[in-house]
Structure formats: structure tokens, C-alpha cells
Amino acid sequence: MDLRAAAIVVGFLGLGAGPAAAQFDAGIPVGTKAPMVAINDLDGKPVDLGSYIGKKVVLIEFWATWCAVCKSLLPQLNLVNQTYGDRVTLIGVNITVNDSPDRVRRYLVAHSPPFLTLYDNLGAGTRAFDVPTTSYIVVIDAKGVIAYTGSGADQNLMAAVAKALPR
To answer: From CA 152, how far away is CA 62, in angstroms rounded?
Structure first.
């Protein structure tokens, strides 16, 4: 395992850091342009985030099937989806640590998350968004600017999305 992978695993496990909190300094900085990166889907086909970013608000969650906090965020993600519908695109980027495509597919059937699922087996999204941990949420406004980042179960995703919506 290289140093970058080890650092990501440490972050995912929550070792070496204080309690996860919403809106923090780790990861891609708020106020910067969102990276236009391609991330594979579960079939290995690249999906260009540029086809979503800059069109409307985008919420991206970096998650894993084994992440209890990610699972606890599902009701909030469902509420965002029900409340804002087609005004917001939800994307779930599986970070692939200890997750196979088959395991992810089983999770999707069991839990029905409301997001387009991508499988970051090449690490393109994790690197581009400087992902520090699972349950990492990035909200991108309709102009393609990072409006919110956060991690942990105490995030208020409705408020983060509402703040990013055009007025």
C-alpha cells in the first residue's frame, strides 16, 4: 500500500483525527471551482462529472458499503432528493476500499440510495476532491463552485443544499 492509500485508509477509519464535523478545512477548499474529472461507473465506463457540474446544484457523497456514518446519512439524502427533486443532482462515489462492484450492487439493492453511483477504482475522484474520509460530502453550486464540504453524521445536508441553490 502506498503512502497516499495508507493516509486515506487512516482517514476513513477515523484514526489520527478529532471527531468528524460538518464544514471543515480538510479536502477541497470551499470557494474553488469543482474539478471536472471522469469517474468510472460500476461497469467500468467513465462518467464525466463535467456533464453534471455547472448545470445545477450537485451533491457528491464519497462513501463505502461498510461506512456506518454513510448509512446514517441516507435519510438526509432521501429528504434532499424528495425536497429538491430535479433541482439537485446526487452522486455517490464509492471509494472502493474493501468494496467490490458486486458488493456495491448488493448494497444498492438493499438500501436504495437516491444517488447516481460511481465506483472510484482508479482514485480519480478521491484525488481530485482531496477526500479525507468516508461520509465526505461536497455540494457544488450551479456555477460549478464548491459551496460546502463536510463529514460525519452531524451534517445538515438540507441547509448545505439550500445555501447552494440559485436565488
So the answer is: 11
Cell 444498492 appears where? 108
- Bridge partners, 15 (sequence order): none
Distance CA 87, CA 166 (A): 10
Enumerate the β-bridge partners of residue 146. 140
Distances (CA, A) of 23 to 27, 73, 154: 10, 15, 10
Residue 4 CA to residue 75 CA, distance in Å, equals 31
DSSP assigned state of 66: T
How would you class 18 by CB atoms within 10 Å of its CB: exposed for 0-12, middle for 13-18, buried for 19 or more? exposed
Half-sphere exposure of 125 toward its Cβ, with a 13 Å CA cutoff?
Answer: 29
Length reported for the chain: 167
* pTM of the model as a whole: 0.86
- Of 90, 69, 88, nearest to 155 (Cα)? 69
Q: What is the pLDDT of residues 28-74, one digit of tens each?
A: 999 999 999 999 999 999 999 999 999 999 999 999 999 999 999 99
Could you read off the pLDDT of 7-22 as tens digits, one per residue? Answer: 444 344 443 333 333 4
